[in-house]
Write a structure and sequence with these properties.
Layout (H helix, E strand, L loop, with lengths): L1 H11 L15 H7 L3 H13 L11 H4 L4 E2 L5 H7 L3 H6 L22 H14 L8 H26 L15 H4 L6 H16 L9 H4 L5 H16 L28 H19 L15 H14 L6 E5 L5 H7 L18 E2 L1 H6 L22 E3 L13 E3 L7 H6 E3 L3 E2 L11 E2 L21 E3 L8 E2 L5 E2 L5 E5 H14 L4 H5 L2 H7 L5 H8 L9 H15 L6 H7 L3 H4 L3 E5 L6 H4 L2 E6 L13 H6 L11
Antiparallel strand pairs: 1-3, 2-12, 4-5, 6-9, 7-8, 10-11, 13-14
Helix pairs in contact: 1-3, 3-7, 3-8, 7-8, 8-10, 8-12, 10-12, 12-13, 13-18, 18-22
Keywords: Cell outer membrane, Membrane, Signal
Subcellular location: Cell outer membrane
Family: Belongs to the SusD family.
C-alpha cells in the first residue's frame, strides 16, 4: 500500500514544497488515469491520508520536544546521530524565525508537511471520485466522507498553528491568473465554520467504528470526526480566539480583523455540546477508560501505575479514539528506554535520552490527589532534600535507596509516567512486583551519564512512552512492542467536558463527573473530597476560577508528553507565563547523592507574544501581497 502511495505521489508530481500554496492542479492526464478504476481511486485516497502529520515521530511533532515538557542534552554531532533531526528542539531554544521557519506546515520545510498540497489533493479526489466506474455507491460515499474529514483536519491543523488561515475549498483551474492564485487569510470565525461544516457533512457517511480492524484501523470513523469537531470548537472558544484585545493588530490586507474582537461565552456552550456528542458516540462505539487487566498477579499500586502507562502505550487499547498507524513509535521508545544493566551500555538501541523537566515532575499531585504546594501533610519546602525508601515505598521506589523527597508520596500517575533515580520500573521482562528493575541514574551508573552521547539531562525519563512488554536481551538487542500514537483518547474528551462545562456555567457536580472517573482510574478520590480533606485551599473547587485551575492541572498531568500541553498553553494564553520560567533538572553529572540532588538551571526559556502563532515564511509574504504576517514576525 505504501509503495502504491509513493508511486502515485511521484506520478502526480506533488512536488515542489516551495510553490506558493500549490493549489492549481497539474498533470491532468495523470489525474484522469488515476480515477479510471477503483484501484487507482483507492490509491489516491491513501495519498490524501499520507499527508497526515507524523505526530508520533519525536522529530516531526513540534508539540513533543518544542516546548517545556522534555529537554535534551546540548546539541552536537552525537545528539544528531542518536536522536535524528534536532530542529524541533530548536523551537524550545527560541530559534524560530520567519525566514526559514521550523516545522513549517505552510511550505513543508524543516520537518513540516505542506498541508496546502494535502488540501489540494483532497480537492482533486473530491472533484474526480464520481467518475470512477467500478465502485459501489456506499463505498464511494465513505471515501468522500473520509477525504472531507482530512480536508477539514488539515485546515484545523493550520488554524491551530498559524491562526487565521486561507480556506482552500476548490482548486483553481490551470488558466487561473496570478491574481486569482493570491488567496488571503480568512477570519477565524469563518475558518471554524468552514471546518465544522465539512465535518458535519463527513460524519453522515462514516462508519461509527472500524469493523474490519485487521486492515482498516487508523482510518476515519464517526467517533474521530465528532472528536475533532469538539476540539475545533474548544479551540474557538478558548482565550486565544475568544478574548478581546489580544490580537487586535492581526488584520487582513484590507484592514479587516482576523480574530473576533469581542468575547462570546456562547462559544463554550456550543463547544460543550460538541464534546458531549463526541463522548456519547465514543461510548456507543464501545470506547471506555483503559484499565490494566493483565493476568499477572500485581498489587493495586502497580495496577494504578499501569493504568496511565497502558492508556498511552498499549496497542489499540480500549481508550484510543484515533491512533496513527503510519507513525512508528519505535524511535520514541528507544529514546525513552533506560539502561538497567551492563548488557545495555554498548547498544545503540537503548538511548536513555528523552528528559522530562523538573517542572513536570513537580506538576503531579501528592498521593492525596492535590498539588504538592497545597497538601497540608506534604512538606513542599523540603522537596529537594533526600531520604531512604522504606518498606511502604517498595512498589514505587527501591527499598533502601536514597532519593529526593520530591519522588516520595506522589500519586500513581507520577510513578506510571516518569522514571527517576531509584524508581521501580515494572516490565521489560520482569513482571514480579517484588523483583522489578529499578533505575540508577547518577553519573557512571547504568542509567546515568557514562559518555558524551546517550544520556539523560534532567534525571527523569518518560516511562509512559515505553511499552511494558519491551525486552532487552543479554546482547543488547531491543525487542519493541509497537503501538499507534494516540492522537485522541477518551480521557482527553472527558477533560474537555470538564473544561467546557465549567466555562459555560455548569454546576460543580456536573463539571467533575467525568474528571473524577479519570482520578478514580488513577487511584485518587474525587476532586471535592480530596481538596476538602488535604488541601490548604479546601474551597478551591467551589469557584469557577478555582475549578479552572484544577482542570488545567488535571489535563497537564493526565495528558503529559502526549503533545497536548504545547497547544493547551497556547490556546489558554498561559504560555507567556509558564514558558518564561527556567528549565531545571538534577545535577546529573555528579555521582554522589548529595551532589546529584542539587537543582540546576539548564536553560532560561523565553516566550514572547509572537510565539503564540507560527510565522509564515517571509518568501510567501513577498510572493503574495494579500498575505499578512503574524504579529511580531518580520
Amino acid at each position: 500500500m505504501k509503495k502504491i502511495v509513493i508511486i502515485l505521489c511521484m506520478a502526480l508530481g506533488t512536488m515542489s514544497c516551495q510553490n506558493y500554496l500549490d493549489i492549481v492542479p497539474d498533470n491532468i492526464a495523470t489525474i484522469d488515469l488515476a480515477f479510471n478504476n477503483r484501484l487507482g481511486a483507492k490509491s489516491f485516497l491513501y495519498t490524501c491520508y499520507n499527508y497526515l502529520p507524523d505526530d508520533g515521530d519525536i522529530t516531526s511533532n513540534p508539540a513533543l520536544i518544542g516546548g517545556d515538557e522534555m529537554w535534551l542534552h546540548p546539541k552536537g554531532p552525537d545528539l544528531s546521530s542518536f536522536f535524528g533531526s534536532t530542529w524541533l528542539f530548536d523551537l524550545a531554544n527560541g530559534e524560530q524565525n520567519a525566514n526559514n521557519p521550523i516545522a513549517d506546515f505552510w511550505t513543508g520545510d524543516k520537518q513540516g508537511k505542506n498541508l496546502f498540497i494535502a488540501i489540494r489533493d483532497c480537492n482533486i479526489f473530491l472533484d474526480n471520485i464520481q467518475r470512477v466506474p467500478d465502485i459501489d455507491d456506499w463505498e464511494k460515499k465513505r471515501w468522500i466522507a473520509e477525504v472531507k474529514f482530512l480536508k477539514a483536519y488539515y485546515h484545523y491543523y493550520l488554524l491551530r498553528m498559524y491562526g487565521p488561515t486561507p480556506i482552500i475549498d476548490d482548486n483553481l483551474p490551470i488558466s487561473a491568473s496570478p491574481d486569482d492564485v493570491k488567496v488571503e487569510r480568512q477570519p477565524v470565525s469563518k475558518v471554524v465554520s468552514y471546518i465544522v461544516d465539512l465535518l458535519d457533512e463527513a460524519v453522515i457517511d462514516l462508519p461509527l467504528k472500524i469493523e474490519n480492524e485487521t486492515v482498516e484501523l487508523g482510518r476515519i470513523n464517526q467517533v474521530i470526526a465528532y472528536s475533532i469537531k469538539a476540539k475545533v470548537l474548544v479551540l474557538d472558544a478558548s482565550p486565544i480566539f475568544n478574548r478581546s484585545g489580544v490580537f487586535d493588530d492581526l488584520l487582513s490586507s484590507d484592514g479587516q480583523k482576523l480574530i473576533d474582537k469581542t468575547e462570546d461565552d456562547k462559544k463554550w456552550v456550543i463547544a460543550k455540546e460538541a464534546v458531549e456528542m463526541a463522548i456519547e458516540k465514543s461510548h456507543e462505539a464501545g470506547i471506555h477508560l483503559y484499565t490494566y487487566k493483565d493476568s499477572k498477579v500485581i498489587t493495586d499500586s502497580t495496577r494504578y501505575k499501569m493504568n496511565i502507562r497502558g492508556s498511552f502505550s498499549e496497542r489499540w487499547n480500549s481508550e484510543v479514539i484515533w491512533g496513527l498507524t503510519f507513525t512508528s513509535t519505535d524511535h520514541m521508545q528507544r529514546l525513552a528506554q533506560p539502561r538497567f544493566n551492563s548488557a545495555h551500555i554498548s547498544t545503540h538501541q537503548v538511548r536513555n535520552m528523552l528528559s522530562p523537566t523538573m517542572r513536570m515532575a513537580e506538576l503531579y499531585y501528592t498521593g492525596n490527589g492535590v498539588p504538592i504546594n497545597e497538601d497540608v501533610s506534604w512538606n513542599f519546602d523540603e522537596r529537594f532534600k533526600t531520604h531512604v525508601a522504606g518498606e511502604e515505598d517498595r512498589y514505587y521506589i527501591k527499598r533502601g535507596y536514597e532519593t529526593a523527597n520530591l519522588n516520595f508520596d506522589r500519586e500513581p500517575r507520577f510513578y506510571g509516567s516518569l522514571g527517576f533515580d531509584g524508581c521501580i520500573w515494572y516490565g521489560n521482562g520482569k513482571y514480579d512486583d517484588n523483583a522489578s528493575y529499578h533505575l540508577e541514574m547518577k553519573a557512571r551508573q547504568f542509567a546515568g551519564v557514562m559518555s558524551s552521547e546517550k544520556y539523560n539531562i534532567t534525571g527523569y525519563l518518560p516511562k509512559k512512552y515505553v511499552n511494558y512488554e519491551n525486552t532487552i536481551d543479554g546482547s543488547g538487542n531491543y525487542s519493541i512492542e509497537r503501538y499507534p500514537f494516540p492522537v485522541i483518547r477518551l480521557a482527553d474528551l472527558y477533560l474537555l467536558y470538564a473544561e467546557t462545562a465549567n466555562e459555560s456555567g455548569a454546576e460543580k457536580v456536573e463539571v467533575f463527573k467525568y474528571l473524577d472517573l479519570i482520578r478514580d482510574r488513577a487511584g485518587l478520590s474525587g476532586v471535592v473530597e480530596s481538596w476538602s480533606a488535604y488541601s490548604n485551599n479546601p474551597t478551591k473547587p467551589d469557584s469557577k476560577e478555582g475549578r479552572r485551575s484544577i482542570i488545567k492541572q488535571e489535563r497537564m498531568i493526565e495528558l503529559a508528553f502526549e503533545g497536548q500541553r504545547f497547544w493547551d498553553l497556547r490556546r489558554w494564553l498561559d504560555a507567556s507565563d509558564v514558558m518564561n520560567e527556567p528549565i531545571r533538572g538534577w545535577n546529573i553529572r555528579e555521582a554522589s547523592t548529595s551532589d546529584y540532588y542539587k537543582v540546576i538551571t539548564l536553560y532560561d526559556m523565553k516566550f514572547n507574544r509572537k510565539d503564540y502563532f507560527w510565522p509564515i515564511q517571509t518568501s510567501e509574504i513577498l510572493i503574495n501581497n494579500k498575505l499578512v504576517q503574524n504579529p511580531g514576525w518580520k
